[in-house]
Request: fold
Amino acid sequence: MSKENFHPILIIEDQALNRKVVRIVLQSKGYDVIEATDADEALRCLEMNIPSLILMDIALPGKSGEELTRQIKTDPNWCNIPIIALTAAAMTGDRERILKSGCDDYLSKPIDTQVLVKRVEHHLKEGQDEQ
Reply:
């Protein structure tokens, strides 16, 4: 991936194995990956680096991914960052509730890595088209 296509991606996920899988898949596609394990760490990461995209676990310790998404989407510095929810919540109404919290997309766990890459590429391309 060339420097003009450089897209840092913030993964907010408390489970080490899930973070590792997503990190390996995205790094193999040339993406720079920033990792956070909870909302507080994610907010510190956002203060230091504005990512091109966020992958948000919904079931985080402390503040939920839905709460963190609402907080991010109300901040003028971060409100335009696409957020893809990563969640095991797959019951009727979960997708709608999660999207209503401000997430731009939704992937259920276990994550299909091919679908993940396609969705990431789609949202990053969409962001470039809007510029």
